[in-house]
Amino acid sequence: MALDELKSVIPEYAKDLKLNLGSVIGNSDLPQQQLWGTVLACAIASRSPKVLRELEPEAKANLSAEAYTAAKSAAAIMSMNNVFYRTRHLLSDPEYGTLRAGLRMNVIGNPGVEKTDFELWSLAVSAINGCGQCLDSHEQVLRKAGVDRETIQEAFKIAAVIQAVGVTVDTEATLAQ
Question: What keywords are annotated for this sequence in UniProt (predicted)?
């Protein structure tokens, strides 16, 4: 199992990450599609080649073709949106907020899976990319759709752990060179 391989390269000083990785994936209450879509989108957003290589095959095996594509789409579109909206929010000139974005985001309206799944994946990617405006937007859509806070928190727990694992294993790989 690729998850075991990934856990095996987490150093002893990051034992909590190893335990958390097993927990957020192995003990999640999320339905399989939400879980593995979140895992895949976060693995992509982590920018860690090792994390993506190890987690993608299992995600692909647990997702329909449509959900697999949608999770990758969530990571892609949020890569753009998180930079754009985070920057617009951080600039001190509020006039940027009145300008038309002019960016195509059609996949958000028609992701090919349940809207709540795509929103959950988008929220998790936004957590990794640190865009407060996108986090608020996706959280509000999810809450209006009846998704409870525990489910939303589960998604950003997965994001936090996968991001931390990526930083740690990539750091160790770099130091070993």
Answer: Antioxidant, Disulfide bond, Oxidoreductase, Peroxidase, Redox-active center
